[in-house]
Design brief:
Length: 403
């Protein structure tokens, strides 16, 4: 088990009276270093919940997680919670460490202290980053990896104990069970065309896609165009479908530009993105674009709206499990009409048809760069995969016999 204190090099389960307990039983150093380069004495951490943050500036997931951890850290420090973070760098050189550390408000193990960093990595079996090992006031492991907890709950996850996590999960289940469209929004309206205010109550009874996106995001621009086409098709069919743009833009100018490219409603930017961040936290949105689909009863239908649109276009409506199962059955039937193998100019190897049961699964099509699932033409040798439809449509393609 990750973080098990009985692994080799881990902090001992019990200690003598003379050796003492607490953070000094885990960190074999006299002091740490602050982001500004000042010395931080280890006794300053005594009696606190301490999180060891294993990260490196070269890894995008660490770059993305650090601001989330910093926000939670700031909130906890502001309200006087006994919490501290110690950065344990996995950077390759001192300048990279210093540059990354300056973006953090907490102390770090000195970059040159290789024995300490190696010992901590071995003690807590750190095999991937970012990793956040939370220790209690006595130096005991409270949570072997709190990255997901910080992403999902932020500072309310403190002190990261199993009991606290159970409370948060129970509260989350209760909120989702009683969820309504009106409860999701902190304000009672969204913006329509020409900033016309549309009351949230007018969306009740419809299938609503909450579209998390931003202007300066290439994947968002690509998906917005596809969603707009599907939105138009469904509206022409008089389906009770609406989309609400939930802006992830850092500046209002980007928000306004995004709205100009979207034919649907938008959450106002008036509160500086507070409502958007609350919705992103509630639905645990980690990346954009994301589309969360809310059903006519106000309950969450799926958080995979983007993938379903990419897979099935307007046929994905109303995005329910029943609809997806029906589409998968149709796809199974259609696949019988495809050749068992394929050769085309985009790849040197032969591509063989696979299903979800014979090696297929979630993938990104190497031809159109969109989501795929289940059926695919796949190169067994290197994992190159394309949609069946892309195999049929690609220039230079030719169906083989598979023999």
């Amino acid at each position: 088990m990750v973080g098990d204190p009985e692994v080799e090099g881990a902090p001992p389960e019990t200690e003598t009276e003379e050796s003492g307990r607490g953070i000094r039983s885990v960190l074999p150093v006299a002091s740490l270093v602050s982001p500004s380069g000042n010395e931080v004495q280890l006794p300053e951490l005594e009696g606190k919940v301490v999180a060891l943050y294993f990260a490196a500036n070269w890894y995008p997931r660490c770059e993305a997680f650090t601001p989330a951890l910093a926000a939670a850290y700031g909130q906890l420090r502001e309200r006087g919670a006994g919490f501290e973070v110690v950065f344990v760098s996995c950077d390759e050189d001192a300048p990279s460490f210093e540059r990354f550390h300056r973006a953090m408000p907490w102390p770090a193990v000195r970059f040159g202290d290789l024995p300490c960093k190696k010992g901590l990595s071995q003690a807590f079996q750190v095999e991937g980053i970012p990793r956040l090992v939370v220790l209690g006031p006595e130096g005991e492991v409270v949570c072997s990896d709190a990255v997901e907890l910080v992403h999902r709950y932020g500072d309310p996850a403190f002190p990261f104990t199993p009991a606290r996590v159970a409370e948060l999960e129970a509260d989350e289940r209760s909120k989702f069970a009683s969820q309504t469209l009106e409860k999701l929004f902190s304000i009672g309206y969204v913006n329509g065309s020409n900033d016309h205010q549309v009351p949230i109550s007018s969306l009740v009874g419809k299938t609503v896609g909450l579209y998390f996106s931003a202007h300066r995001c290439a994947p968002c621009a690509k998906f917005t165009a596809r969603l707009a086409a599907i939105y138009g098709t469904l509206r022409r069919k008089a389906e009770d479908f609406e989309v609400v743009y939930v802006p992830m833009d850092k500046e209002e100018d980007g928000y306004l530009r995004s709205c100009g490219a979207m034919p649907w409603l938008a959450l106002p930017y008036d509160d500086g993105g507070v409502s958007s961040r609350a919705l992103a936290r509630y639905f645990d949105v980690r990346e954009i674009p994301t589309m969360v689909v809310i059903g006519p009863d106000g309950k969450t239908v799926t958080r995979e709206g983007r993938n379903l649109v990419n897979l099935y276009f307007d046929m994905a409506f109303p995005f329910t499990d029943e609809q997806v199962r029906m589409l998968q059955e149709l796809e199974d039937e259609e696949a019988k009409g495809y050749a068992p193998s394929l050769l085309h100019a985009g790849h040197r190897h032969e591509l063989s048809i696979v299903s979800g049961q014979s090696g297929g699964g979630p993938y990104i099509c190497c031809e159109c760069d969109e989501q795929g699932f289940g059926w695919a033409y796949q190169c067994i040798a290197c994992g190159y995969e394309i949609h069946l439809r892309c195999g049929r449509n690609v220039e230079g393609g030719s169906a083989g016999t598979g023999q």
